[in-house]
Specification:
single chain; 482 residues; alpha/beta; Alpha-Beta Plaits; Aminopeptidase; Immunoglobulin-like; 4 domains; four-stranded antiparallel sheet; 14 helices; disordered N terminus; binds zinc ion
């Protein structure tokens, strides 16, 4: 475990005249890249590692510690808790406030759920917004609070807000790194960068919580029990929507596309096009970037979401200045409100349905795979619902689960509107044994039937099982042709 004192050794350093390879080499050496623009970069580096820069002949300036940021106007940690509690109390039908764990210094990690029938889990896509995993990037915290206010204030008066709240389960965590926020620092109080500490596919591909920052552990444990399909984490330091991947097996790649590249770009664009500063960005075309295209980062939360949870997550950088004066928050909220609403609405597109056991009707923990897109998503085992975000087109989809026969659906049409619904019943694997027995009996008895599989429900009780087999044996025993 890293002691808290070590965090004080971190220097914030500006590099100039660096190229893509320099940045990559620094990342390989474990240096924390904050952001990159033109041939400049801001990095975080321990003072005893500054010699690395000298060795690489990189010119740099150690930035003075930022002045104590102007907290005026920003909600304090305590006020954030009071605000969330008060909203949850005022709108108990659509808001429920969870504390999913405590930070290293014992502060609450609040997660607000906003949905109709908020007490129960329904056949609805789960989406999440998480902000300020870097404690010195507080804009998203304020925007998340505004977002929650906006949803509850407009529920049942604004049809779009009403639909979003009724049709999905919206989770908002305004402050993932409360200790960092209180101490106005990037890291948590174990000295860990929370956006470099998740499992990824390249350097740390073991999807367990062991040995990770305490805040990451709580978030991972929460995510394992939920099935979010779309999410974003908010930062400052740039103004751009960054979509996966943030790292690649090939160190020398300068772009790393996911199998859902077109979908990712389209969703990223739908956010950025509604945000004036992103849309008019002179540095990022259309206000979006692929993670690796910008700079490689290992252990980021967005890649973990996509790779390990099947959830489309992006990293949204809200403002070039990390901690702007609070007087800028209203215009930042104006710039992002529409984008935040539109972004989550993507969770309602593509194909959706509920996967159940054909015999018992119970929900199944199943894998949903679109043929031709090498990326699985999963049902939520509590309800059995799946939500596969897709662009308009015609798809083939396979649904599989341990102990069940795989089902393949072809010619599934997805259009611009709400998701196409396909509820799926899977037959248990044991069903094949019965079917095989019947086929063998057919061969032995030369019994001629050409009925579809469903017709094997001879006892007509809606299920196929041993009683059907027994009935079938009786049937052929009395069949005049056998
Ligand atoms: Zn950040």
């Amino acid at each position: 475990m890293v002691s808290a004192e070590l965090t004080s050794e971190y220097k914030r350093v500006r590099l100039s005249n660096v190229n893509h390879q320099d940045i990559l080499s620094l990342t390989q050496k474990g240096i924390d890249i904050d952001h990159v623009w033109d041939d400049n970069a801001i990095i975080y580096i321990r003072s005893n590692s500054l010699s690395i820069l000298d060795t690489m002949n990189i010119s740099y300036t150690v930035l003075r510690k930022p002045d104590v940021r102007n907290k005026e106007g920003y909600h304090s940690y305590t006020e954030i808790g009071e605000t969330l509690t008060s909203i949850a109390t005022s709108y108990p039908n659509i808001c429920k406030l969870y504390t999913i764990g405590k930070s290293y210094e014992g502060r609450n990690l609040w997660f607000m759920k906003i949905s109709d029938n908020v007490e129960i889990e329904e056949d609805e896509p789960e989406v999440k917004y998480i902000s300020t995993m870097h404690g010195d990037e507080p804009v998203g915290t304020e925007l998340c609070l505004n977002f929650i206010h906006y949803l509850v204030n407009n529920y049942e008066s604004d049809p779009r807000v009403t639909d979003l709240v009724n049709e999905m389960e919206i989770w908002v965590m305004p402050l993932m790194n409360p200790d960092g926020y209180v101490h106005q620092q990037r890291y948590n109080m174990q000295g860990i960068d929370l956006n470099r500490g998740f499992p990824d596919r390249v350097k740390d591909n073991i999807n367990t919580t062991e040995g990770r920052a305490i805040e990451i552990q709580h978030l991972m444990n929460w995510a394992f029990k939920h099935s979010s399909v779309l999410s974003a984490n908010f930062h400052t330091g740039a103004t751009v929507v960054n979509y996966p991947y943030d790292s690649d097996f090939d160190y020398y790649k300068d772009y790393s596309a996911t199998p859902d590249e077109e979908l990712m770009k389209t969703i990223a664009l739908s956010y950025a096009s509604l945000n004036k500063s992103m849309n008019e960005s002179s540095y990022f075309p259309s206000g979006i970037t692929n993670g690796v295209e910008w700079y490689t980062a290992y252990g980021g939360m967005q890649d973990w979401n996509y790779i390990w949870l099947g959830c489309n997550e992006m990293t949204i950088e809200l403002n070039d200045v990390k901690w702007p004066s609070f007087s800028e928050i209203p215009s930042l909220w104006n710039e992002n409100r529409e984008a935040m609403l539109t972004y989550i609405s993507w969770a309602l597109r593509g194909i959706r349905g509920v996967v159940t056991d054909a015999e018992t009707g119970m929900p199944i923990n199943a894998i949903v795979r679109v043929l031709g897109i090498d990326h699985d998503i999963y049902t939520d085992p509590d309800v059995g619902d799946y939500h596969r975000l897709l662009l308009p087109g015609v798809y083939s989809v396979s649904i599989s689960a341990d102990g069940y026969l795989t089902k393949i659906m072809t010619d599934i049409t997805v259009d611009e509107g709400h998701a196409t619904r396909h509820d799926i019943q899977l037959f248990p694997q044991s069903f094949t044994d019965i079917r095989n027995a019947i086929i063998i009996l057919k061969l032995i008895s030369n019994f001629q039937i050409n009925e579809p599989i469903q017709k094997l429900d001879i006892t007509n009780d809606g299920k196929i099982g041993i009683p059907d087999l027994i009935d079938f044996m009786r049937l052929i025993a009395f069949d005049p042709h056998s």
